[in-house]
Structure prediction request, 954 residues.
Amino acid sequence: MPKDGIGASSKRREDIRFLTGVGKYTDDLALQGQVHAVMVRSSVAHGRIVRIDTDAAAGMPGVLAVFTGEDFAEAGGNPAGWLINSRDGTPMREPKRPVLAHGKVRHVGDAYAAIIAETAAQARDAAEQLAADTGIEELPAVIDMEAAIADPSNRVHDEIPDNLCFDWGWVEDNRASVDEAIRNAPHVTTLELVNNRVIPNAMEPRASIGEYFPGTGDYRLTTTSQNPHLTRLLIAAFVLGIPENKLTVVAPDVGGGFGSKIYHYGEEAVVLAAAKKLGRPVRWTAERSESFLSDAHGRDHVTKIELACEKDGTFIAFRTDTKANVGAYLSNFATVTPTFLHGTLMAGPYKVPNVYVNLKTVFTNTAPVDAYRGAGRPEATYSLERVIDKMCRELELDPYEVRRKNFLTPDMFPYTTPVGLVYDTGDYHATLDKALEMADLSGFEARCAESAARGKLRGIGLSTWIEACGIAPSNLVGQLGARVGLYDAATVRVNATGNISVMTGAHSHGQGHETAFAQVVASKLGVPEESVEIVHGDTSKIPFGMGSYGSRSLAVCGSAIDKAVDKIVAKGRKIAAHMLEAAEDDIVFEDGSFTVAGTDKAKTFGEIAFSAYVPHNYPLETLEPGLEESAFYDPANFTYPAGAYLCEVELDPETGKVQVVGFTCADDFGNVVNPMIVEGQVHGGVAQGIGQALLENTGYDESGQLLTGSYMDYIMPRADDMPVFNVDYSCATPCTHNPLGAKGCGEAGAIGSPPAVVNAVIDALHRAGHTHVSHIDMPLTPARVWAAMQK
Amino acid sequence: MPKVTMTVNGRAMKAEAEGRTLLSTWLREGLGLTGTHVGCDTSQCGACVVHVDGAPVKACTALAMDLDGAEVRTIEGMANADGTLSAIQQAFQDHHGLQCGFCTPGMVMAAAALLQENPKPTEAEVRHYLEGNICRCTGYHNIVKAVMAASGQDVSGLGIAAE
Ligand code: FES
Ligand code: FES
Prediction:
């Protein structure tokens, strides 16, 4: 393993500030003259606002301003990023998502007013007063998706009678042939399942600070965002109409995102508008209870999947019928997540000629649902890997052999799936073999016996997953309905004394970009990592960028950096040619120096940099001073990480409690820059997947009250819920179309793990003779498992 | 507003407190020591753990008023006197025991308390002790490893380490 640069487990430089308590998260910033905002949120799931009397609240001590939905009636809606058409060609229904609820409240926690006061406590007191002075006529809540579609009288949005956003078919042209294949198949396995709604719970609650500078008319928003440029674009182009050159968005240290901090939220517009009105910085920080109610949730699919196959397990067709809950409003990625991030993955890593997905997207009186780590791909993987497992049990086939029989093989790439993706590389046999070797399968029976001796049941479960990362290219996504491009951008600035600033559109909120991106640049330029500084999270410093989500940072933003570095080298060769009085074509760049090929005439990188800024005798018509280059990188395709996960569980038959006792991951992430960071990403992703599979559930009652609104009721994975993880990424098949050969690793764990956990529990039950249990819905709580065991 | 005095990281510090001011708020807003984080409103996440008179305390469960005269140690007071990382902080960096860093101050403070009580904890003991600290990023594997490494134990058996 190299000690430095690409491939080294360089220690993270960002750790120093986090470990000494001097990181700067949004809520850590104290500004001169700052005042505090508190949101007033609906306590009912569905209601008509008949009266808001602001007088009493406005007159309370310290209160400076009260905003209601009325104040933002002229502002634009916060849009969905993708326009999806229904099967019949009609465009999706896109109700306006206002800054503050206006006319109606549509979920518990829907903010309809904001109080600004000198102190947070004063604002909270006034918020209570305002809630008491608000009249809301409660309407029946639309909670269950079936009921939402069936009852046209009960509408989340008055203009949408069936509560449907769209009814999407993918690929609609496949539909008839898939139906036909399933009708004629020798065996069909059907599984109905729920992909449970989860709440992202980044440990740092959302927070935003708005500032307005009257002298120039500039605004600054400091906010907990995974993608400050996207937030700026949404506020500028859609919501408040502030020109981009008058609005700076800064995302400082951000304490985790997992998708929930991709989106623009109304609070960001409120603090900006309030800052302008009051001429003082306005800050808002969510309490955890508010995060539960108002952060975008994840998953929430109800699916029926059918797998048609030969008696030997050879796949013939997959057909999926899914209802996806989008909650009360469309969050920014809510329409792409269940469609193009889910439907397109329904072929898995398999040779299967017929695949069709029908997806109905439903409005309900619940918090908006959007992309959460993995976003659509975990839902696809869960459906596939669970139905395959069920089929293997029905036909008494070996799950490993069935996977092997159906895997695409390396000679088949590039491979076009029946659901529209073109996989470039992969070796699914290799990752499965590796996982089986690592998990010590031969010792499994002995481990079962040892568990049995303690009165416990043991099981093992497999999942072989694939994902599409680094969503792109812009040409394609534009055809599919994206309202943005999906490239990224970077600027590499070589300063006069040879140190380097890299401005990147990616945002690091745990991923370690400040270290890993520096490794990339240092390797390419042959300079020490310490001389490279990564600048991220500030629209005033960075040319542009789409931010970090979808495992895209290294594959897309890293490639933009790589491209900009290539331009630096090209410029360096020009400068070297001038300095060494040689032809540019004769200059080679290697190990940090520019040399005239075949001679010992050379200039170091530092000498070139210095000369670029001290250009005393440059031929200015042909050589420009300075050494700074920018690049935009728009990928040619998605990347396709894949892997095999094996989960081993122990189950207490007395209580139904499941403990994960072993977890093995053999992944193909293509080329890896920092193995230590990659392992950490897998650990975290798997932990979230285990959390979804065993612990985390989001419950709403019939009236739309959130039943799991704190850490008392929403069960987060804790240290003693987690096993030691056994992680490998040696079966790498580099991505063929980006310069780093990187595929992305951030979401893998959350995608591949839930079905492995559930398959392991079912396995444990079958081994113990509970063969009537074919499925248990996540989370597999003790109560659910115990109940399933009772005939 | 009344003032409360405590010895924080070895120095006498004074700041205003209302009756309802939590220790976490007093440290963050009164003293500007924002290393102590607030991750929840039900005293369950552990992001706010500090040491009060030598014992680990969730700073969001204590009222500043009640602690007049107390000896408090926060994450800002954990480094060595020369500013280098202490053994436990260093172990977190060496073993990648943090990602976004938000839970980290509480984790380090809890881990330091554990090692005071139990200088050579087993893996199970570490996991059990850290039950009150939630981390959403790391899956805990590398945190457990860091804590055991900080106690001087061999952690090479804990997964295949990229070191
Ligand atoms: S903030 Fe103290 S336990 Fe969460
Ligand atoms: S490192 Fe992000 S919550 Fe622990």
About this structure: Chain B has two domains: 3-77, 87-152.
